[in-house]
């Protein structure tokens, strides 16, 4: 059984916080399936811990899970991509705070072949352990570029590319013109798209509700992203 | 400050388990927004606990949340509905185990005006506190009917109503015939639709992936439900 130094245990544990992930440029994945995806991904694996080698007790000291998995990897983060308009269909997330939502959105972007994901600086970190887990491996195929969203919207518009946004009072997405290229902005769980970002949106969309009588007031942001992106792709396939 | 008896505290806490919810016919909701929805819903409120009345300490003893909210209600469950085919568009969930997914699906069904939700007996309980929370109030507008899914599928087919299912090897939903009435079966997070249920599906659908190169292997079940239901509603609106 390999004995880890307490400094080493501390350094892995520290990667649970964004501050240390940013300083070290590293993040953690746990679980056999996720680590297998990491190994195939081309991401640089800095450390690999196996329960068989270090034992149950040390494993539970470095793990962020309630029941630690048999394997944990410390991985070098991807290089950030530039926050500029590009050809293709892109997503921009305005203050998405819930890790499960961001991970699910990365998985959706992966499935639907979205060309890139941007997010406001106050969106949850893509290397947060819960985001990584919910992404089901999409973290190795999609990078989130954190940036100033109003400036990003302007760079799309200056490149002649449309900027879409979803609003509760937008116009029915099924009747709207949707191009195969541009930027789709999704708002936060609680407040939707902020005023500053909304002022830079060309086309305000909404997913219609078919509820009769009193019904849901909104959709979960990951769910709304999926329905929106699916419609863009269906129309432009 | 009202002092609760330890028996009363125990009886509220017990509703965290399905066994006791079934015995008592009660469930718990927490939070100001959820309790407000409960009050407007017509559901019978058996008990209402406010932090102002019973104090922070007693509140944290009856709450299932990490940081207890100012208000908690004990509510009588809805009467179960019969597990038979009906006119309209219905969902059937085959072994959906994650509470967040079921709650999100209830919210989706609410938004898209789904006429009823059925689920296999091993699907997570609709009155599980995490389901209730994720449903964002849909628990007061949509009831899940737990039943034998193969028999339910047969009852739809015998009534001349189509049974749809989503499969990774189904045919493209955007090219398939989708009627405004029938049953849409969604499979479990890990295993999709079971063999027994799948044998009773008339039309096998899939949501196409637009990923180029290696991509996501699947979509989250709540996300897949939303994309599927949105397409049925768009087509038949």
Summarize the entry for a quick read.
The first copy, chain A, is α/β, with parallel strands linked by helices and 237 residues long. In chain A, 36% of the residues lie in helices and 21% in strands.
Could you characterize what this model shows?
Two copies of one chain form a homodimer. Chain A has 237 residues and is α/β, with parallel strands linked by helices. The first copy, chain A, folds into two domains: 6-76, Ribosomal protein L30/S12 (60s Ribosomal Protein L30, Chain: A, 2-Layer Sandwich), CATH 3.30.1330.30; 89-236, 3-Layer(aba) Sandwich (Alpha/beta knot), CATH 3.40.1280.10. Chain A is built from nine helices and nine strands. In chain A, the strands form two sheets. Chain A has a six-stranded parallel β-sheet. In chain A, helix 5 packs parallel to helix 9 (221-236). Chain A is elongated. The mean pLDDT of chain A is 95. The interface between A and B is medium-sized, with 35 and 35 residues.
Query: Quaternary state, please?
Result: homodimer
Q: Can you summarize the main beta sheet of chain A?
A: 6 strands, parallel
Question: Which chains make the largest contact?
Answer: A-B, 35 and 35 residues
- Order of the strands making up the biggest sheet of chain A: 6-5-4-8-7-9
CATH topology name of the largest domain in chain A: Alpha/beta knot
* Overall mean pLDDT of chain A: 95
Give the CATH H-level superfamily of the largest domain in chain A: SPOUT methyltransferase, trefoil knot domain
């Amino acid at each position: 059984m390999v004995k880890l130094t307490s400094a080493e245990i501390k350094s892995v544990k520290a990667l649970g916080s964004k501050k240390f992930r940013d300083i070290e440029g590293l993040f953690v994945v746990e679980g056999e399936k996720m680590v297998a995806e990491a190994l195939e991904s081309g991401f640089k694996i800095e450390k690999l811990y196996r329960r068989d080698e270090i034992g149950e007790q040390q494993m539970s000291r470095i793990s962020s899970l309630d029941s630690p998995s048999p394997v944990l990897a410390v991985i070098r983060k991807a290089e950030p991509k530039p926050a500029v308009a590009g050809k293709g269909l892109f997503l921009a997330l305005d203050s998405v705070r819930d890790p499960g939502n961001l991970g699910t959105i990365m998985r959706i972007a992966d499935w639907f072949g979205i060309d890139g994901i941007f997010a406001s600086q106050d969106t949850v970190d893509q290397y947060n352990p819960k985001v990584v887990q919910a992404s089901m491996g999409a973290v190795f195929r999609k990078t989130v570029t954190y940036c100033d969203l109003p400036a990003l919207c302007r760079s799309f518009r200056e490149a002649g590319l449309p900027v879409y946004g979803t609003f509760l009072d937008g116009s029915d997405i099924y009747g709207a013109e949707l191009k195969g290229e541009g930027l789709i902005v999704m708002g936060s769980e609680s407040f939707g798209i902020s005023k500053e970002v909304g002022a830079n949106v060309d086309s305000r969309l909404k997913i219609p509700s078919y509820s009769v009588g009193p019904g849901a007031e909104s959709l979960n942001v990951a769910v709304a992203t999926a329905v929106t992106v699916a419609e863009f792709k269906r129309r432009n396939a």
